[in-house]
Amino acid sequence: MAKSNINHGKLNYKKRSNLIAYCVVIPVLIYHFTLIILPSLNTLYSALTKWNGIGKKEFIGLSNFKELFNDPNFMNALTNNLKWMAIFLTLPIILGFLVGYLLTRVKRGRIVYRAMYFLPYVISAAIAGKIFAAFYNPYFGINVIFKNLNLDFLVRDWLAPNNALVSVALVDNWHWWGFVLVIFMSALQQIDPALYEVAEVEGATTLEKMRYVTIPSIKNTIIFIIVTTMVWSMGTFEYVWVMTKGGPGSELLSTMLYKNSLFKYRAGYASAIAVVQVSVSFIIFGLFALIRRKSED
């Protein structure tokens, strides 16, 4: 009888736990379906229509995609996105890893350094973009400093078409690399010190310890940062829009989408751009998921 009561109590506890879980998950699922899935399906359908964003949608099949892939502005924007991605896959990741590696060996004041480096990440992109746009002003910005230091070879129009993309990317790097640093530091601090002690006993140099102990130990973190950077690079918008409005030399897929949707009243065409952006992001995510799965096997 007592055993039956215990089993009955366990059953009720399990039912209550399941009920609580459903009560938590279902609202989130409804929220996600309403604000993510439905708008995504609507965007997919809109990409197949001629639509100005307000009136009735006219179904035109794949015409928007045919026009898109023959649009030189689209190819230019896609190329700029890939350049942007290449910059962010090198500079902030290398800088974040090296500084994080060095900071893990700092015994005093590590939190202060980490907070200082992370600080730019909490500053609004709109504010930082406006400030750096003033720094890049050819008449009273950093050019004046370079002239005073006799560094005339660095004086240039930083936001001219030939320089705009890299100039804006450097500002976004200043904002982004502190986040990368914190992620790397969290991973580096989880490495078992015994692995380094064994490597020292074996006579490993600093570079060998980094190659055979550090990097393999934080492999998943490196993959996470690379995937995040690549997917984020396909949708980046804020700094470019604030500093150049996606002008010549700095047009990205997001700024092109924004202009077509809100200024040219071509919401259907803009939806096709969004579908391409999401598709590329899914391909990147899928490839890295496959790589990670194979490496785990």
Distance between the termini: 50 Å
Structural class: mainly alpha
Can you count the helices? 14
Rg calculated over all Cα atoms: 25 Å
Low-confidence stretches: none
> Per the principal axes of the C-alpha atoms, what is the gross shape?
flat
The beta-strand count equals: 2
Kindly state the percentage of residues in helix.
Answer: over 70%
**Biggest sheet layout:** 2 strands, antiparallel
- Major β-sheet strand ordering: 1-2
- Series of secondary-structure elements, N-terminal to C-terminal: HEEHHHHHHHHHHHHH
What's the pLDDT, averaged over the residues?
89
Approximate strand percentage: under 5%
Transmembrane segments: 20-41, 84-103, 115-136, 220-242, 267-291
Protein name: Sugar-binding protein
Family: Belongs to the binding-protein-dependent transport system permease family.
Pfam families: BPD_transp_1 (PF00528)
